[in-house]
Amino acid sequence: MIDNSAQEIELQVLSHGEQLDTATVSVLRLDKSLKFDSLDIDQKIEALFWAYSNEDFEDGMDSEFISEIIASIRTYGTRAVEAIRRIVLEQNLQPHIAFEALRWLGRVSHPETYWSRLFFLETCLGSPSRMMRDGAALGLASMKDTHAIPYLRDAIAREEIQDLRKDLETVLSRLEKLSDAAISIDDK
Fold first, then answer.
1. pLDDT value for 9
2. Which end of the chain is more exposed for a tag (fewer CB within 10 A), N or C?
3. For residues 140 and 174, is the Cβ–Cβ distance under 8 A?
4. For residues 88 and 101, is the Cβ–Cβ distance under 8 A?
C-alpha cells in the first residue's frame, strides 16, 4: 500500500511541481524515511518540509527533520541550501518549521556551504515573519561570523517587536565582542 501511494505521490510531485497535498503529507507521515530517488533536490527538500510541518520540535534537541536537512546539505551542498532558501522564502510554510530550519542552518558544519548559509540567514533578518527573523538571528549567533554585524544593526533598527529586538541586540553584542577580540589580537 505505501509503495503504491509513494509512487502516486512521486508522480504528482513530478507532474505538478506544486506544494504537496494532504494525501502526500499523510503518506510521508506514515513513513518519513521514504526516498524518492527520481525527485530532484528541490522536490526532496520540499517533501521534507511538508512531511514535518506539524512536528513539535523541542528546543535544543535534534530531530529527524534536522538530521535529514543536514544530510541533504552534506550530500548536495549549495544546491540543498538554495532549495531550502527557495522553499523558506517562497512557500507558505508553518512558521515554526522555517524557524527550526533557520536556527539549525547556522550549526551545520559544512565549509562548502558556509557563505550561502550565512548570506541566506542575513537575508532572513528582513523577513516579514517574526519567527523567521528569530530563527535567522539564532542561526547567525551559532555561526559567530562578524560579517553579520551590519545586517543585525539594520534588523534592530527596523524591529518593532521589543523582545525580538532585545534578542537581536544580544546576538549583535556577542558578535561585536568577537570582533573587538579579533581587533585586539591583530594589534598585538
1. 38
2. C
3. no
4. yes
The answer to the question of residue 27 being in a domain is no
pLDDT digits (tens, 9 = 90+) for 60-113: 667 889 999 999 999 999 999 999 999 999 988 889 999 999 999 999 999 999
Kindly tell me if the per-residue pLDDT of 54 is higher than 50: yes
CA atoms in the 13 A half-sphere facing the CB of 10 = 13
| 68 Rama class: left (phi>0) / alpha (psi -120 to 50) / beta | alpha
Task: At 85, list the grid cell.
Answer: 532558501
Tell me the whole-structure pTM to 2 decimals: 0.76
Domain holding 72, by residue range, is 40-187
**Buried b / exposed e along 56-82 (16+ C-beta atoms within 10 A):** ebeeeeeeebbebbbebbeebebbbbb
Going from the C-alpha of 25 to that of each of 18, 29, 55, 141, the distances in angstroms are: 13, 6, 12, 32
Q: Which residue has the cell 573587538?
A: 180
